[in-house]
């Protein structure tokens, strides 16, 4: 739990630095990099045997997992976009 809070706070501060102070004003691109890193990390954990692989068909994937992934990406995009306009403490 403490690790989650620490890493979450660090990620928020890092995103704010990238978007405002570094001048990279592309929150959608930052969100895509976040999602790509998460996908690669999940792939490595499954193929490395750390997490058990689950078999799922395409219909179940499109009805259960894809909508959640799409909504998560939208939430990340909107939260990253707020750092361009608001302070971290306010957001």
Low-confidence stretches: none
Secondary structure class reads mainly alpha
Most strands sheet: none
Beta-strand percentage range: under 5%
Kindly state the number of beta strands. 0
Count, helices: 3
Query: H/E element string?
Result: HHH
Percentage of residues in helical conformation: over 70%
Gross geometry: globular
Estimated radius of gyration: 16 Å
Mean pLDDT: 86
Question: What's the domain count?
Answer: 1
Oligomer: single chain
Cα distance spanning the termini: 21 Å
Structural write-up:
With 91 residues, the protein is an all-alpha fold. It has one domain (2-85). It contains three helices and no strands. The radius of gyration is 16 Å and the shape is globular. The chain starts with a helix and ends in a 6-residue tail after the last helix. The relative contact order is 0.14.
SSE diagram, text form:
Blueprint (H helix, E strand, L loop, with lengths): L1 H20 L5 H21 L10 H28 L6
Brief overview, please?
76% of the residues lie in helices and 0% in strands.
Question: Which key phrases capture this entry?
Answer:
91 residues; 3 helices
